[in-house]
Design brief:
The chain is mostly helical and about 230 residues long. About 60% of the residues lie in helices and about 0% in strands. Helix 1 packs across helix 4 and helix 5 packs antiparallel against helix 10. The radius of gyration is 27 Å and the shape is flat. Keywords: DNA-binding, Transcription, Transcription regulation. This is TetR/AcrR family transcriptional regulator.
Length: about 230
């Protein structure tokens, strides 16, 4: 009986293995990925365009947790909120990948497709084209910052004693980290979406004044005969 065949090397296995390394150590190298897969480094290069290519495979794997259907919801602010929560949950599962993904250009087609849908949603809603990328970037900042916060220590502000910073010590002791992270995200996202609503209203043209009809001009009343009625 022959030896079992090794699983064929493909982009899915490379991305999954690289993400495992990042989750464990915060980084990866192509030789490490190859070693864990039991292949030569050159074999990995046959499937990806170097380190940048593997980073995009990482991004694609993390994006598995995104709920693409959230962007089908209406109205727009509901879609934006649901997608942001899905986005945060996906990245919170892999916090060590966030710094790497935040500083690398987005090329993964499946991820680009979601941002294309988001941009389309904002434009169809009536946001000015020049407002769309600041909104998308701002949402990224809120979501990814909060995803990192979810893995932060229980006490981020180390206070030696109440005498050193009594107000901060009181505030920090009043809310445990999980609740603090959730409430901070809810507060920030709600404020962001509310600000976007304001931008939308500012960008809408003012309604044109209704032209007065000839008979109103003549009589100052709604009497089509032109004769004003006195009560």
């Amino acid at each position: 009986m022959g030896r079992p065949r090794k699983a064929l090397l493909d982009r899915t296995r490379i991305g999954r293995t690289a993400l495992e390394l990042v989750d464990e150590t915060g980084d990866f190298t192509l030789p490490e990925v190859a070693r864990r897969l039991g292949v030569q480094t050159a074999s990995v290069y046959h499937h990806v365009d170097g380190r940048a290519g593997v980073i995009e495979l990482l991004r694609d794997r993390v994006a598995d947790g995104l709920d693409a259907g959230a962007l089908d919801q209406r109205p727009w602010d509901t879609a934006l909120t649901l997608w942001a929560r899905s986005y945060r949950a996906a990245f919170a599962a892999h916090p060590r990948a966030i710094p790497m993904l935040m500083t690398a250009p987005v090329r993964a087609p499946r991820v680009i497709e979601q941002y294309e849908r988001l941009a389309g949603l904002l434009l169809e809603t009536g946001f000015a084209p020049e407002a769309v990328m600041p909104i998308i970037t701002g949402l990224d900042n809120i979501v990814l910052g909060s995803a990192l916060d979810m893995s932060a220590p229980q006490e981020m502000w180390v206070v030696a004693g109440d005498a050193e910073a009594p107000h901060l010590a009181l505030a920090q002791s009043a809310t445990a980290r999980p609740a603090r992270a959730e409430r901070a995200f809810d507060l920030t996202l709600a404020g962001f979406v509310d600000h976007c609503r304001g931008l939308l209203e500012e960008g809408r043209p003012a309604p044109a004044p209704r032209e007065a009809s000839d008979h109103r001009t003549r009589s100052g009343s709604g009497d089509p005969s032109g004769t004003a009625t006195t009560r």
